[in-house]
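Run log // design_07
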């Protein structure tokens, strides 16, 4: 089972002209959830300060599945799909309230970074790697929205290029 790592409420300033959560704020919520993931593995504020290490996002993908509106309670569940000595492939699904179907999904590639002397990649400390491994052990094995690529089906017509008049 994935781990619930973050909960929030859709704020008025996050809502667009259609009355729905603005697309950028889905990423904000997933970003806050990534911070919660960092807290969970020992890279909270105190851990980052004492270790002089952090996680940087190398790549992020979002699937917008259903709209949600102002005031809605949301939760984010996270799964570790894979990790190596320096990176974590994190998958998250966002749900409204106690709903069973996700309203959005995100996958992210995170890099562990030594913040001293130029922010270079660093091997996870043993205790951090152990916490990541424990989260992976409880993760889903077949995430529904991971590994997707943006593109039109082959054979789709190329868009016409605008030409000056």
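design_07 sequence
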């Amino acid at each position: 089972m994935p781990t619930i790592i973050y909960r929030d409420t859709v704020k008025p300033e996050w809502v667009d002209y259609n009355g729905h959560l603005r697309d950028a704020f889905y990423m904000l919520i997933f970003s806050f959830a990534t911070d919660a993931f960092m807290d969970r593995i020992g890279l909270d504020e105190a851990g980052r300060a004492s270790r002089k290490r952090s996680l940087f996002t190398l790549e992020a993908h979002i699937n917008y599945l259903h709209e949600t509106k102002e005031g809605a309670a949301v939760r984010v569940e996270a799964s570790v799909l894979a990790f190596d000595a320096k990176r974590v492939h994190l998958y998250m699904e966002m749900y409204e309230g106690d709903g069973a179907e996700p309203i959005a999904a995100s996958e992210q590639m995170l890099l562990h970074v030594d913040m001293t002397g130029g922010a270079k990649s660093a091997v996870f400390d043993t205790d951090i790697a152990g916490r990541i491994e424990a989260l992976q052990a409880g993760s889903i094995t077949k995430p529904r929205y991971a590994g997707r690529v943006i593109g039109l089906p082959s054979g789709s017509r190329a868009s016409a290029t605008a030409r000056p008049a």
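Residues 148 and 154 are 15 Å apart (CA to CA).
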